[in-house]
Amino acid sequence: MLAQTHIKQQLDALRHDRTLGFVRLRVACEVNSFLGWLNAQPLYPRIYWHARGEERPEYVALGRIHELTDPAHIARVCANTQASQVDSPRYFGGLAFDPDLPPQGNREWQGFVPCRFDGLALDPDQPPQGENPWQGFGPCRFVLPRIELVRRGECVSLCLNLWFDEHNREAELAAGHQALAALVPEAPLPPLTPQQWRRRDNPDRSEWQQLVTTVTAPDFQTHTPKVVLSRESRLEGADVNPWSLLARWAERAEQCFRFGFQFEPDHGFIACSPERLYRREGRHLFSEALAGTIRRSGDEALDARLAAELLSDSKNRLENRLVHTDILHRLAPLAHDITLTEPRILKLRLLQHLKCDIEAELHPEVCDWQLLAALHPTPAVGGAPRESALAFIRAREPYDRGWYAGACGMLSRETSECSVAIRSARIDPGAVTLFAGAGIVAGSEPAAEWAELDNKIANVLSLLG
């Protein structure tokens, strides 16, 4: 590949250079399908990130220079990205929905099981079994990649990242050559063929009804007016390539963030999420409250009536108000000139959501780790108040969300952006697990909320036969 030859020449020119710190080498190249190129490469981790909006850059990240796997260490990203180099490093990764929760296979159950939470008893004989399905993801994993492929408009660049200190120059140069030598040309993605699978929902429908009934009880509502309950739908027997599924899914998700992570060959996590956690451009911050859902019909006139119904529905307006009120409260110590728009309709292929846009100017020295700590998880995926809603989810939800509803994205000095990892799927050998959640508030009905969960997975489910 000509691009690799040119970047190797730049790499060799650094042998006698004394530059320290982060260095990015780049050359123009030609790649048509970023996901096809990504799937062909032998390097891991393999990461794909394309923020909402076709004008946004598209990224593939391969390999790693180093990574952060402790939420407490995200502050190091800020330290590394505030250096004075022309190029700043970009970290790609995510936080679990509940980074403080131990993995399911390793939880300390003493004092937690058996337990009662508003009249529902956990079964002391049924603690979570088996190995952690999120093994390799962890509570936090942000990667500084060795290789990046970047598309900005019509321009595509191949980048090699290096980080020099006083003692590692020869080792970094050798690692750079090794990574470049491993790259191969793009190839067509494997076809996505119809699958034969068996679906298992967790919680099942009866458990779901019990959970919703508990959350909507008047005594519970007095202290926790919103809990976002969720469900995993495991399709056993489905065997798919994660990047083939993401490519097809993305065709139906124009107004969404598209991203995926494959830290090792046998496990992947992909999403086409409509929800932004935040976008930071220098000191300027963009966030949003996305909560309140109704279906689309495919008929323009009926969709307009459904949108009007959503805008006027007191239950959905309450759900959205709880979200944006919490976000504004959490931003208050970090920013000024905070503005909030009136709710509007975000139209997706099969669903419509209530969405309020939030903008603010950050105080000096406010970093991404502070934004993540303040905003994640939002009431759109957890509930309100945060602490009591999370306590209920930890005690009563019968599976480990892992990175579902987590915060996934890219952090850099100039611009950082994270999406909330809803409308997502975990791909394991012989199984695909789909996730969906619904905000439960006063007036929520179990059957209607169950139907909403089905609507939220219908898009990707239709791709799997």
TrEMBL record:
Chain sites annotated for binding Mg(2+): E319, E452
SUPFAM superfamilies given in the database record: ADC synthase
Record field: catalytic activity: chorismate = isochorismate
EC number: 5.4.4.2
Cofactor or coenzyme needed: Mg(2+)
InterPro entries in the record: ADC_synthase (IPR005801), Chorismate_C (IPR015890), IsoChor_synthase (IPR004561), MenF (IPR034681)
Pathway(s) annotated for this protein in UniProt: Quinol/quinone metabolism; 1,4-dihydroxy-2-naphthoate biosynthesis; 1,4-dihydroxy-2-naphthoate from chorismate: step 1/7; Quinol/quinone metabolism; menaquinone biosynthesis
Presence of the UniProt keyword Ribonucleoprotein in the record: no
Keyword Ribosomal protein listed: no
Record domain Chorismate-utilising enzyme C-terminal: where: 205-456
Active site: K226, E275
Gene3D superfamilies in UniProt: Anthranilate synthase (3.60.120.10)
Keyword annotations: Isomerase, Magnesium, Menaquinone biosynthesis, Metal-binding
HAMAP family recorded: MenF (MF_01935)
Reported function: Catalyzes the conversion of chorismate to isochorismate.
Homology family: Belongs to the isochorismate synthase family.
Protein name: Isochorismate synthase MenF
